[in-house]
Amino acid sequence: MTQAQLSARLNALGRFLLVIVLTYLGLLAVTFFIGRVIPVDPVLAIVGDRAPEHVIARVREELGLNKPLWEQFYIYVSKVLQGDFGTSVLTSNPVMQDIRRAFPATLELATVGIVIGAGIGVPLGVWAAVRRGGLVDQGVRIMGLVGYSVPIFWLGLMALVVFYAKLGWVSGPGRIDVAYEFTLTPVTGLMLLDTALAGEWEAFRNAFSHLILPGALLGYFSLAYISRMTRSFMLNELAQEYVVAARAKGLSESRIIWRHALRNAMVPLVTVIALSYAGLLEGSVLTETVFAWPGLGLYITNSLQNADMNAVLGGTIIVGSIFIGLNLLSDVLYRLLDPRTRIK
């Protein structure tokens, strides 16, 4: 590697790290000022509106709210970087402790959703592009339209009525039945993994029965988006000259589609899947509410309804960090998959 190449790589790495730092500082700044402009006094949320004035003043001083705004922001950033989001008014626990308890439920639900969405959506999108104008293509487009149009909470309620109340194919709201809930020792917080590690296969089946309906619902909505984007990317690739050349050379149609066109379409598709996954991790609030799923979305919703701003802002920072992390991961994968984006 020459000196010029090394210098170029170091400059690119420096710019990459600078983008991360500035993006995260921007996220912290937004959450900080949101916490200051909303019409909720964090002191009154803690001590109540009937507390004496000297108690309110003392708590305000302890929280640092009597300091200049720039100093408050400095203290806020310092605490967040140490993982200190304050104490939840609703649970009286450190917010980070509550998030550690709630996040694995959301992670498990979103992971099932993206596995279903990407695992079915990508092949469907490819098939729709190959059979453009056919029945499969029309079906995929209608599926995408319904996925974008139907409110997820309504579909969740209808799914509970049909598959749980009427047919009895799945279990109802919650992560697991009460009979199993207190017999398991959490290891990872992921119910399916914990029950499998403990060898509790009855509990595993029960947890899966609770998970499959909300997971399939989220999977359907991500499938609608991923299949549509896959179709679009594949139509673009199938119109390229290298596809015409490959057919002229006598390559099989399946090899052209799956080995060449899809491989090139995967470059932008990685970003779509990564951002869809981030969207499921932060956007499953309505699904968690309908299915009483004790995840991060339900935690933030309950905290917001009770004016617990430490919990709301802490959850918002975690969600924003997930978006930043997955966006950066997709950027790295983009560079690995597309040699044209690498520095020479």
Automatic annotation (TrEMBL):
Record bears the keyword Phosphoprotein: no
Keyword Transmembrane helix: yes
Gene Ontology cellular component annotations, sorted alphabetically: plasma membrane
Domain ABC transmembrane type-1, residue spans: 103-330
Transmembrane segments: 12-34, 109-130, 142-165, 207-226, 261-280, 311-334
Subcellular location: Cell membrane
Key words, A-Z: Cell membrane, Membrane, Transmembrane, Transmembrane helix, Transport
Molecular-function GO terms, alphabetical: dipeptide transmembrane transporter activity
Membrane topology of the entry: Multi-pass membrane protein
Signal peptide (from-to): none
Family the entry assigns: Belongs to the binding-protein-dependent transport system permease family.
Protein name: Peptide/nickel transport system permease protein
Species in which this protein is naturally found: Roseateles toxinivorans
